[in-house]
Amino acid sequence: MSLLPEIGAAVIGTVAFSLLFGVPSRYYPYCGIIGGSGWIVYAVLLKWLTTPVSALAATIVVILLSRMFAVRQRCPVTIFLISGIFPLVPGAGVYWTAYYIVTDELALAARTGFMALKVAVAIVLGIVFVFELPQGFFKFVKRPLPAEERKERENIK
């Protein structure tokens, strides 16, 4: 499969998962961009690096973009993070592990299960690495407040 249909599938899958997850519709384009970007990084790096390392790099991109869009749109980062990470989750690896266990092919089950575990750990590490960056690091993408909201915040102080 060439890269362009894979990216399209990642974007559509991410937006579809956003719909199921209950993300407001105004954020669908951002979720699609994040999911597609993560898949681009994963697919390109997979040619030269191992699967877990590619997943780690793609996760870092997904979380960086999620935090940037969250600051830009003034909304929780989980809106973008959960749906954007969707294409990278090793669901097929878990499925094949269960399948090989049921069909009594334990060597294949161990191999695919261990790979799925390594990818899952890489995703968790990528999330932790980026969430350790201070919030101030993402101020460069912040939009200025509208005049009404700025006045309202000044009156509160």
How many individual β-strands?
Answer: 0
List the total number of helices.
Answer: 7
> What's the helix-strand series?
HHHHHHH
Strand content: under 5%
Head-to-tail CA distance between termini: 57 Å
The gross shape turns out to be: elongated
How would you classify the helix and strand content by structural class?
mainly alpha
Described by strand count, sense and barrel closure, the largest sheet is: none
Short account of what is shown:
With 157 residues, the protein is mostly helical. It is 73% helix and 0% strand.
Topology overview:
Elements: H1 3-21, H2 28-45, H3 51-73, H4 78-84, H5 91-102, H6 106-131, H7 147-156
Helix pairs in contact: 1-2, 1-4, 2-3, 2-4, 3-4, 3-6, 5-6
What report would you give on this structure?
With 157 residues, this protein is mainly α. The protein is built from seven helices and no strands. Helix 3 runs antiparallel to helix 4 (78-84). It is elongated. The mean pLDDT is 88.
